[in-house]
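Closing statement on the flavin mononucleotide sub-project.
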Amino acid sequence: MSFGDFSGLVDPPLYIVTASAGGERSGCLVGFATQCSIHPPRFLVCLSVVNHTYRVAARAGVLGVHLLAADQHGLAAHFGERTSDEDDKFAGIAWHPGPHGAPLLDAARAAFEGRVVQRLPLGDHRGHLLEPLDETVTGAAAALRSQQSAGGPAGRQLRLQDAATLEAGHPADETAPGAGAG
Ligand SMILES: Cc1cc2nc3c(=O)[nH]c(=O)nc-3n(C[C@H](O)[C@H](O)[C@H](O)COP(=O)(O)O)c2cc1C
């Protein structure tokens, strides 16, 4: 069994991560993301260096992190299969600027803004270590109620296996011009 086989068994939640800097907005679907510390609270978001979102996030002090319900496949496809290198993904999508400036998607099941406290070279992705800004958390109560309600897809969060047929706007084997590992 290879590491690829091992990874294929894992079914992490998917997020949409957004950023805004210099009048530019961006956002993409992210599976490489997790809370990684309790005290202090920290959340790690890994962005591929070939993504438009990475280039905007590199100039942003705060990122938006959105949790999706299992039936929000369309929203996941919108942010995971298209690239802002080609069009404005926010056109036609309801969003508002968060208290700290990250674009927040109105349809998300829950969201928070996180201040970037560290950027870490991690191979073809770059880690963005976030300090979650508590006062920005939205939707959590509604999401919890939905989770407690009987079992339908709206009660679950969207996970990688739900999105298995999506084709990333920037394929996994794409390399950034001039990029080395890390
Ligand atoms: C299921 C799935 C998971 C993904 N996970 C990540 C991820 O963890 N990090 C990342 O940077 N891109 C990830 N992507 C790829 C981006 O979402 C995708 O290439 C997107 O089109 C990039 O948009 P952008 O160029 O506008 O940033 C994933 C895509 C899919 C379909």
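The chain has a mean pLDDT of 91. With this model delivered, the sub-project is considered complete and its resources will be redirected to Aim 3.
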